[in-house]
Amino acid sequence: MKVRFGLIGFGAWGQHHARAIHEVSGAELVSIAAHSDESVVRAREQYPQVQVYSDYRAMLEKEDLDAVDIVLPSDLHYRVACEVLESGRHLLLEKPMTLDLSEASALVRLARERGKLLAVGHELRLSSLWGRVKDLIDEGAIGQPIYCLIELWRRPYRLGSGGWRYDINRVGSWILEEPIHFFDLARWYMASAGEPTSIYAQASHRRLDHPELLDNLSAMVTFEKGGYAVISQSLAGWEHHQTVKVTGQHGAIWAKWSGAMDRTFAPTFDLHLQRGESLEQISIDKPSGEVYELVDEVGRFVEAIQGNGVVGCTGEEGRWSMAMCLKAEESLRTYMPISLTGLFA
To answer: What is the per-residue pLDDT across 209-234, written as a single tens digit (0 to 9) for each?
Structure first.
């Protein structure tokens, strides 16, 4: 039996989610809830076989759905996610889960109480490139990881529907936007070093009309068993270029990805592994990029619903990524390192 999906949100990224659900063999896109008149018309044109609603509550009430995928501006996540889980559906929720840690914890509890899966949209974990880095680390290719650098150089963010992404009241913190993916990867790669224990961040901006927009951000995260990670992002660059470097006790990994834009279907990428005097280029068996990884994320979610695996990123893990971002924001305000010890004890 196919997993019957409802999609809430049909903006630029929501359309990619619709495509991903449509491409997964075990999924069926049954209905779409779109907010604006334009997006309702667009959804009906692109998916004439799908029931389209202008009110997601009507969709939840009328449609026979197994799962719901939420792709909305961040400030709407908590309220809509609660309604989806309370309606008895599994939930795939775009990052960040919410704008507040207590709300993220409430979603984790609600999903557990209702016996439903909660997956968070950290699709880079499903990447043929970034996921291969994790595989090499877990295979012991470089020994115990002791240092990780994740860097992004790109053009500024898109405004988002109605300009929401440039409204600080709707994003909560710009660190919760794209940098959250890199905090998530850092914790994932450094898992053998234990949980993060502290974070220190610095940032600068060049937009006088949006001084709260962090054009340049760098943060250092330390881990309980030793080792640290550096996350660095600049929105003052061009195109979209991401690098991951991981140093271990016996070797190092260097992965890089470039595209004219983040959602390109034609990127360039490569992966190298150094051990002793040996330097090896690691082959990647499929294209890498979030437009591809989103399909794999939906596929993993469907398999988990069907009892054949686990989701790519759980609610608990998504909450940790949120926490690191919000504590980095606190570090920026206080000019001090912030402790992460015992955060979810």
So the answer is: 777 788 899 999 999 999 999 999 99
Dihedral angle, C-alpha 32, 111, 188, 16, nearest 10 °: 0
pLDDT tens string 29-49: 999 999 889 999 999 999 999
Cβ-based neighbours of 65, under 8 Å, separated by 6 or more: 4, 5, 6, 30, 31, 59, 89
List the beta strands (DSSP E) in 211-311: 216-223, 228-234, 240-248, 251-259, 268-275, 278-281
DSSP codes of every residue in 76-94: GHHHHHHHHHHTT-EEEEE
- The pLDDT, as a whole number, for residue 124 is 97
d(CA 142, CA 23): 36
What is the CATH architecture of 125-287+321-339? Answer: 2-Layer Sandwich (3.30)
Helix axes 290-305, 12-23, angle to 10 degrees: 50
**CB 322, CB 180: distance < 8 Å:** yes
How far is the C-alpha of 325 from the C-alpha of 211, rounded, in Å?
Answer: 18
Give me the helix-helix angle, 179-189 and 130-138, nearest 10°: 20
Q: Are strands 251-259 and 338-339 parallel, antiparallel or unpaired?
A: unpaired
Q: Kind and range of the H or E element at 333?
A: helix 315-334
| Tokens 């334009």, located at residue | 38
Contact (CB, 8 A) for 244 and 272: no
Domain definitions of the chain by residue range:
3-123+294-313, 125-287+321-339
Query: Fold match between 3-123+294-313 and 125-287+321-339?
Result: no
Model confidence at 208: pLDDT above 70:
no
Q: Is 158 helix (H, G, I), strand (E, B) or coil?
A: coil
Tell whether domain 3-123+294-313 is in CATH 3.40.50.2000: no
pLDDT confidence tier of residue 290, bands split at 50, 70 and 90: very high
Give the predicted TM-score (pTM) of the model: 0.95
